[in-house]
Structures are given as structure tokens and as C-alpha cells.
Amino acid sequence: MGGSILGNRVLRKEDPKFLTTGGKYVDDLLDEPLLQNAAHVTYARSSVAHGRILSIDTSDAASMPGIIAVFTGADLGLEPKPSAFNPMATRTLLAMDKVRYVGEPLAIIVSETREQGEDASEAIIVDYDILESLIDVEQAMASTTLIYDACGSNVVFDTTALGVPENTGDNYFAGCEVVVKGRYINQRVAPCPLEVRGAAAAWGPDGRLTQWLSTQHAQGAPEPIAAANGVDVAQVHVKTPDVGGGFGAKIGTYPEDLLLGVVAKRVGRPVRWRETRSESMVGLGHGRAQLQYITIGGSRDGKVTHYQLHAFQDSGAWVDMGTILAPFMTRPMSSGVYAILNIECRTTSVVTNTTPTVAYRGAGRPEATAAIERAMDMFAAEIGKDAAEVRRLNLIPKFMEPHTTAIGGTYDVGNYEESLNRALEASDYAGWRKKQAERRANNASKQLGIGVSVYVEITGGVGTGESAKVEVIEDGSARIYTGTSPHGQGHDTSWSMLASEQTGIPMDKIELIWGDTDLVPVGTGTMGSRSLQQGGNAVYSVAGTLAEKAKSVAARLLEANEADIVLDKDKGIFHVAGTPAVSKTWADLAIAEKATGGLVHSDVIGVAGPTFPFGAHVGIVEVDIETGKVTHIAHYACDDAGTVLNPMLLEGQIHGGVAQGAAQALLEEVRYDDDGNPITSNLADYAFISAAEMPSVTVIHMETPTPNNLIGAKGIGESGTIGSTPALQSAVIDAVSHLGVRHIDMPTTAERVWSAIQQAC
Amino acid sequence: MIPAPFDYKRASSAAEAIALVGEYGEDAKFLAGGHSLLPLMKLRLAQPAVLVDIARITDLSYIRDAGDHIAIGALTRHMDVEKSPIVLQHVPLLANAASHVGDPQVRHRGTIGGSIAHADSASDLPATTLALGATYVVQGPNGVREIPANEFYVGFLESALAPDEMLTEIRVPKMNGATWGFQKFNRRAQDWAIVGVAAWKRGNESGVALVNMGSVPVLASSVSQAIASGASIAEAAELAASEAEPQSDLNASAEYRVHLAKVLVRRALESTNA
Amino acid sequence: MKVTITVNGKTHESEVEPRTLLVQYVRDTLGLTGTNIGCDTSSCGACSLHVNGESVKSCTMLAAQADGCEVTTIEGLAKDGVMHPMQTAFMENHGLQCGYCTPGMVMASISLLKENPNPTEEEVRIGLEGNLCRCTGYHNIVKSVLAAAQAK
Question: Which residue in A731, B4, B172, C81 is a FRET match for B230, CA 20 to 30 A apart?
């Protein structure tokens, strides 16, 4: 008997293609029959942040070479549609009355070549009556200028409207010996998948619309596409080519996606659209963008008893997914890993004249973690104790049954102190502290900073299960149909491992099908670190059931009792126990079942609930005291994602997560000038982190399985991001804390660090 | 993204290139490696009507020991400057600065002449050649002239080159054992310098120039004068920004730039590279 | 205008606009879509390929400038179905996730090792400064390049 493949470092099946021919992304569909003769779509975009549109003159553009058509919202007869999260906010898919951010689409150019479209977009002339630009949430709340007049306010969502009481204010802390307040900016960042947005649309001879989409969730797309095109949802077929990263920003559909079918119908040709990076930096949703006011209180011996958070979420110029992350993701996780008995959290979401915010790796939990971790550091600094020890003192003790925090989050299992211990030990925390003390004593120009975070997050919070179908065909190979949507995570490999484990069919004879709404009509996609615990779990379950089903077929063919049939997974054959010489292969069974619908099983498999991965990170930085320059020199990550299916893939997720978390702590920020013009709208200005700014990452394993699914797996896609950001922000501040610095907002750029030192000295 | 349309002409000699640019006038631009010009054209910040490709003028790609100086053909690529044994031996500061330009792909295509002719104060090589007291040889319809580096940079992206003149050679005095330092302060390795410093010192003699401390590369003469009069490096470095007029931008305030210039000049001059 | 460019060993004569970028030429004219476009500013390196054996960013080079040159793209690396050692190293070390930066990253890495056959980790990191990846955190990319250097 061979051992289980599960838990092994299995190389990726999908890699040879990516490495030899490159993936087939939406812009690579040159051979697609339905897209032959496709025209190109270019969007003309607002160049002002806030203004009434007086006129849009498309005549010059329309007469340029190769231009097939130019459409405004009026030309297309677009109607305002309400936001799913606040029906009082309405917009048209192309701006018509008003523009609300730089980059908002306001006209569509259809051209023979992409270059002609780009040329023509320069020739569209828009007259605006400029309105006050609201770039900051507090400015937007104070202003009488409204971004959505019908909302009556720039506040578009508040937890008080959900019946959550307002925070009680300072008297909440009346009994505390120590009270510390903070105002933290969890800055706006750009998700920056390396592949920007793109899509293509074609109306087939059957009257159906096929749309190719670079998306994380194909099954979510037909409904909005059908609505935009005025057809029944059954008339829409969405296909997902390879997707070059998403990180949350490709969960939903965008106006640019939704209008392709409309213009394809108008011009009577299929169309392709791919934005440029400069467009993507203002058109693809942004992440984070929370302003946080915290107060933390407790006793001088280090016990935290009270915590209060008011998070102001910048929604950007549309009431999109970003609006609801604060109330539904940040708030329930606001207690973090700590047993804080008194906790209040209010969230207020505010529209501004900036790119709409959406989910971005972590989506609300990094913000919650950053706030509580920063607060813990401030509290520790105030009482003069080691930040790691103050954390330890306040951790929720190990629990293997569900635990509910004072704010109402119910976690599955947790062993936070163990993760902290492992991270401190593996990083030689004490050793770093010793080195730090030496450098301080020597007044070295480069000081060491050590940051610790302990975190818990929620994964699989989206969806309650996932669809899976496994079929075995006549050559004995298998096909898996999954409702998840890989774009780098390696589902082809992972789902094959799970199905192979159950069926004995070798991984190289298993094919994965996803992201095609005709072939996989039910699916919740890949987001919120849900894929393995829900999608993989479903594949594991359905493949197991199929193997059982197959035994009954084998019993029939072998003229034996089903109970006597065994599946030899090493060989992939069925036989009567004790007589392996007479056997049937998967191919035999598939052939036998062909007439009666095939050897297939399909189901939607539920899970018991979301899971709560946790861990601890230690980040080490070196800070040049004279210039403020920060160098990230070491990183230790202990992330407990429950049972590990493939440690190689797990580590890859952690590494990538750490890089994005480090990027937020140290480098990246989307910025606007006072008029709302983006000043980080390309990858030369936006400080997308590179290999040269990263150290290698030490991954520390820890597995505490969840009882909530068959596999025991929790999510790992976002943990690295959630744990690393606060550890690194803390490390930077720690490096200069001996100079009197208590806080530096992210990103901790050299100038910010330098300024903080100047102010403290 | 793609540039606006233009005509493309390829020159096989400097004379032909100069004649072509003369023919098309102000709308024409020389194209060497293209790594300064093409990015601007893609963003449509530059829209020349004609590009005269000079990269094939192979007799302008060379590095020669010319006695008291090193002569570098304008079309020599950054990577060739960076790795040249002659440059490494006689003007190591320049080799080091060249190794900090852009990234390896950029250095495979970009040329020293293109970088200098583009006259971007944020580029590494204009300031470095300025610190080294280089002379630029330019060729025009009326012949050849030499322009000292300290007279070359006249404004933002503006040089003393006439539109129909072409930079053909960079003459860099040998460093003769001077110590030197190149300090490039940036956010990410691939980025332009927020502030950069190229400096050398030999006894009381020195040359110091600053990257991105104003609209033109800045020769920090006050620093060199102070050192000549016997000031310590630390004292002299305090004068680093005397000639500079730095701007505030996305990456730094003017005040911070001034501070950085002082620190980086001190570090560059204290460097023991030789 | 007409250009003659040898791509992956095959010589092509093509009519292009002067403004055609080399990356558009390989993707649109030749249909070699392995080379990707990730930005507008020569920042990301997704479009990296080899011109006369050296890595360049094909978004910052005109097809006209490559006239008469030898170009190698990701599609030209494997020989007779056998992957280049760098491709193998990326596979064995999980040096890729979504795959979008991968062709450029592999091409840049090969060029890096050609110029510095035994780099340190630091030299690999600096050597890849012009290639951005959003998935891997670079950890396994760096590991892949170091492994490829060892394998030679």
C-alpha cells in the first residue's frame, strides 16, 4: 500500500503550460472562433474628480481612422441603477449627469485596432462644471457637497443603521488605570494583479451572449451581464480563461465588463477590451482605505479590559463591496486574538471622489488586525512592558470548542499562545532584542526594529459550501468540475490530489474544469480564502461518494456483493476482497455506465461554518536613523491553516501574502492631489514592491485542524497579508521607539520615519 | 499603450542622422536606446512626428583610453559602461553609477548618450559625468564642438544641444586613484533617485554632483570649495544643497531632499572606494 | 514599414507601423502570446524577452529597432519538448502562481545567470529589480534562480 498523497509537496500540474507557452489569458484568445473579426473597445474616462457633465463631444473621435462607433450613456439609453448596498445611491454604467472620480468611464469607442481606439480616446471632448472634490472621508463628512444627492449625506452605510449602538465615548474607560488613544490611517492601496482587467463578448448564432472574463467568480457574472444587456440570464454564457491574479479586485463585474455585449450588439461584431495599466490603477477597485480611531484601556499590570474602535471606511465614488467590509469583516474581528471583556466597534462608510473600494487580500480583516495590534503596542509602550508579553497576557486561552468574543465573533478553534511561542522561538526573538540593545548602546546609525503580531482572521465567510462534479470517462480518466476559480492558487493540482486520493485515478489523468457557467452553473468562486475548505472539500466528498457508487457498478459487473468489493487505490481497480486477480478498472465501469448517464456524481457540499486561521508574525527591519530609510531584513511567519494539503502551495500563499502585507506597511499607497487627480496611476509612481525590497521568509508550520469541514483545512490565502502588516509597522516604530517615537502611519516611508524622529527629538 | 503615430528613419552615420533631423526640424527626435523617449511617447507626453534611429551607428559605441581621459561613444549602452574594464579601472565612479541606472533590461538597451542628451536631472549619469568634470562632444551641421558638462544642462529636460546637434562622445577625466562614492536614495531598487550623489575626492580636490535636486543636475561647488579650503567632510557636506533648488513631489518634500543631500554627500565623500 | 526579425529561430518578414512595439509584434503579428503586457512604464518586466541573447523589455522597444535581430520568447526556450533548466527550476521550486509575470521573469532570470553565473541571493534580488510579481512574494522565484545556477 502506498501512503496518502495528501499532505505532500506535489509539484503543480499547471506549470508546464505557463512555463513553455504562457497561460491563455483573455487577451490571448486569438484563435477563438467566436472572436474572429472582433473589434476593440476603448473607454474614454473622466479627467476630473467631481463635476457635472455639460457636454460630451464625440464627433472628432468618431471620424478618426478605424473608428466603428462611439457611444455615450445617452446614445445607449442607460438608466441609473441602485447600489446593492445602499439603494439611494444610483449610477449609470457610463457617467451621464455627473462624474465622481478620475477614471470613471463616460464613453465607449469601438475601433478596428486597439491603437485606433487609444488615438480616438484623446479626441473626446468633455465640458464639466467642476464641483468640490472630496478626497478624504472626514472632509467628505464635513462638506455640504454631496456625491450622491439622493443619499442626503456622504455617509452611505453606518452600523448604527443596523441597530448597533453608537460607541459610548470616553466614559467607557472610566474604570481603567491606563487609557491610550490613537488615530491610524490604514491607507488606500491598489491590488495590482499583474494582469489588468480584460474581457471579450460575442453574440452567437443561437442568440446567446458569450462573455470571456478575467474574473474570480464566473458564476456571479451572468446576472449583472444579463441585466445590462436586457436578456434572460440563461442567454448569458461566461467563460474564464487563465486569470493573471485577482486578490479580491476581480470578484465583481465592472461597468466596462457589463457594456461589452451591448456594444457588440450595436456594431454587429464581437468585441474585445483590455485596459492599460494606467487605466487599471484608477479603474480596478482599490483596497483598505480605513481611518481608525481607537481607545484602549486596562490595568497597569498589562491586562486590557476595554477597547473601542470607530472605523471610517472610504467607499470611494461608488457604494461597492468596500463599503460593507468594515461593518461585516472588520467589526466582528475587532477583538483579534484577545480576551477583551468590553469592546465596542462602530463603522461608518463614506463616499469620496476616488476610485471605488472593493475587497483586497484580507478585505476588512487586515484593518481589524492592524487596529488592535497597533493599540496593543501603544498600550505596552504606555506601561513600559514588552509588546510580545503584553500580548501573551491578553490572549484568549487555547480552545477546541467554539469561542465567542465580546464583540460577537465566534471562532472555531484557537491556540494563539502556541503560535506566538513558535514564532518567537523560530525567530530567536530574544536574540534580536539583544542585538537591538547593542545597537542602541552603540548609538548605531542603523537601528534594529522588531515587530510582533498575533492575529486571527475569518476565512470561508463567503458561501456555505461549494459544488463539485466528478465524472470518469471511458478511457479511465476523470474530470472534476468545480465552482471555485483558480488564478494562481493551484486548484488543478490540489483538486486532483483530493480526487486521486479518493479514487486511485492518477493525478495526470484528472482534468479540472472551472469558470464556465454552462459547464459549472453553480459556484461561489475563489475569494475570502474559501477554496480548499469549501471547493476542495466538495471535490473530496463527491469523489468519495463516486468511489462508493462505483463499487456498486463493480459488484454488478463482477457478480458479487457490493459489500465485498474493494477499491485498490494503488492500481485504480475494483475487485472482490481476497481475489484481486479478477478485477474491473475505472474504464470498465465508465464504459458499463455510459448508457445510463455515465459514471458521475455531482453535489453541493455544505460546511459547518467559516474557519478562523490564526498565527503570529515576527518582522525585523533595519532603520537608517539619519535618513529614515527602512530595510526589511527578516520575516518569520507562523500561520495555522489547519490540515495542510500541499505544503509547497501553502508556503507559496504565505510568501505572497507577506509580500503584499509588507508592501502596505512599508511602501505602497494610492495618492491623490487636492483636486482628486491620482498621482500614483502607473507602476513607476505606485511603489509596487519588488524582489529587492523583500527578504526571504521563514515559514513556521503549525496545524490545528478545524472541525468545520471533512479535510480539517482553514484558509491560507490571506493570512500572510494580515499577519505581516502590523508586525512590520510595529517593527519600524520599535526601531525608533528609544528616540521617543510612538506611532508612524503606513506606509512607513523614509520621509515619514525621518519626520517622526525629528518631531520626537 | 502605444505612441502616437510617427515616421521612422534609420541613420547609418552621424552625418546622415544630423541631416535627417535638419530636414524634419523641431518635430524630429533622435532615438538611441529609446529608454528615455519611448516611455514618454507611450504616455503621450511626447509626440515627435519623426524618429531618427541612431542606434545602428556602430562607430559611436566604444570605450577608449585617451590618455588623460576616457572617451566613450554616445551610443555605448549602460551595461557596457558598467562592465568595461577600462571604465572600472579609470573612472570606477561612472561604472558604478551606470550599474544603478534603471534595471538590467534598461541597461541592455539604454545608452550613456541618450541619458545625457535627455538631460533629466533625476537620471544618474548626467550628474555623475558632471561631478567627474566630463566634456561632451557634439556634432551638428556646422561641425563638431565640445561642451563642458557644467554648461550643458540649462533647464528641465533642456540642454545646450541645438535640435540638429547630436551628442557623439563623452570624455571623462581619469580619476587617478581618487576615492569615490555613489549614493542613490530611492524607494525601490528600480526607481529613480529621490536624491542621488556622485562624488570623488583626492586630497583637497573633489567633485560632487546631485541627482534630482532641482530642474537640472546640480554641481555642489560649495562643498568642493570648502574641502579645498580645509573643511572636514562633515562640515563641507552641510553645504550640499547650497546650489540646489529642490522641488517637493510625490516622493519627498524639498526640505527632506535638502536633508538627504547633506547626509548622502557626507557618505559619498567618506566612502573609501578607490 | 517592413521588418525582418528572427523569432525563436524562424525568420519573419512583416509589414508594421513604425510605432509598433516589439511586444505587439510578437503577440499580435506573430501570435506568440506567451509574452505578456503588465504596465505602460517599463516597470513590470512582464514583457521581457531576449534580443540577441540579452533581456529587454519589449514594451520599450520598437519592432523597427529589432529589425535584423534574433529574438527569443518564452515559446522558444524548450527544445524538443525538454524544458530549459530555468523553466524546470521554476517548476520544481514553485516559482510561479498565476503565471502572468512568469515568461518575463524566466527570460530575465536566464539573462541574469548568463551575466552572473553564480549569484548570491542578494544579487538575484537586485538582478530582478525590473520584474514585478504580485503572487509569489519573490521567495520562490529567487529560490528557483539560485537552484538553476546550482544545476548548471
Answer: B172
